Fold:
Amino acid sequence: MSSTNVNSNTAEVLNADAQAAFLRIQIDKVDRLMDLVGELSLGVAEVIHSPDLKGLELPEFSNSAHRLQMLLSEMQDAASELRQVPIGEVFRRMRRMVRELERQTDKKIDLVLEGEDTEIDKVVADRLYEPLVHVLRNSADHGLETPAERLALGKPDTGRITLSALQLGGDIQITVADDGKGLHRDKILSRARERGLIGLTEEPDDQRLWQVIFQPGFSTAETVTNLSGRGVGMDVLNATMKSLRGHISVDSQTGQGTHVKLSIPLSLAFLDSLVMRIGSRLYATPIDVVNEVFRPEQKQISTIAANNGGEMIRVRDELIPICRLQRFYGEDCQQLAPLESLVIVVFKTSTGSIGLPVDEIYDQQQVVMKPLQGQLEQIRASHGCALLGSGEVAIVLNCEELKSGEGL
Structure:
C-alpha cells in the first residue's frame, strides 16, 4: 500500500472521529433543558429557605444543602454552555457586507476580526447581527475618510474597522473600532440642543454627549441615503442591548477614530444578583455592577443646587448622585426616609457611579430571569424579573437607565 493511500485513510479516520465527537441537538431541546434547570433551581431554593426549617439546628442538612447548591450551580453553567456558539459565525457574515459597503462608499476598507472563538449565547448571537450591521455602516459611512482624504492626512488610503470579542468575567465585550475621523462633537451637540436632549447652555462631557446618538430618530446627516440619515440604526442597537441586559459605551478621538463597545452577559437565563427591599417591593441587580454597600453618616450627605437640589453622597473623594426609586417612578415622595437611616448600594455604570438607598439587603443569590410581559413591559429601567426561591418576584434594575434618570 502506498504512503499516499495510508495518509488518505488516516485522514478519513481522523475526520470520522472528529465528527463523532459532536452531537447535533435542536435548540428547543436545549431551551427546554435550561427551563427545567431553572425550575429545579427554584425548587431547591424553596426547600432550603422553607419557613418550616426556621430556628432548627440541622448541621447535616446545612452541609447537604450547600453541596446541592454547588452541584446546581455547575449544572446551570453546563446547561448555559450547551447554548453557546462561537461568535465568529456572526463576525464572518460581515465580510460580504463590508465588500458591498466599499462599492457603495467608494472607500477602501480592511475588516479585521479578532476573538472569533469567543463563545456567546446563541440567543444573543441571533439578535446581534442586525445591530452590528448598523454600527459597521456608521463606521464606513460617517467614520472612515475617502482614500484621498486619508492620504492628505498622512493615513493609509485603506481604512480599518476592527471587530473583536473578548470574555471579561461574566460578560462578553464586543468592540467595533475604526481609525477614521471620529465623532463630530460640535455637530452632535448642536443637533442635541435643537431636539431638546441637551440644555442650551449645558456643556456635557463626552461620555454623556455620545449617548444621545442612541436616541430614536437622532442623526446628524444632512441628507438621507441608503446607508444612513434616517436616525434608526443606533436606536435599534440601543433597544437590542437593553433587551439583552447589556450596555453600550462609546469612545471617540478627533482624527483617530471611534470605539463602540457592547457588553453583554454571558448567560441570559441565570443571574448572580443582589436582592434589595424598598418598602414592600423587592429589586435585584447583577452582583458584578455593585461597587459597595454601606450605611452613610450625616457628614457624607449633601444637597447640590446645580443638580436641581438632588441628593449626593461623598464616598472618599468622590461625590456620587443618589437615585431615589420612589422619585424615579413618580411616586409620592412626601415621606422619604432620611439617607442616614437607609443602606446605600453604590453601582458602577458606563457614565459613573450612582447610589441607591434601600431599606434592607434582602439576599445575595443566583436567580432565574424571566422577561416582563404585557403592561409590565413598560416599567422603566428594568431588565425583567427575577424569580426567587421564596416564591417572590423581584424587578431586575437596569442601572444604566437609573443613572441617566438620576435627576428625576
Summary: The longest strand covers residues 158-168.
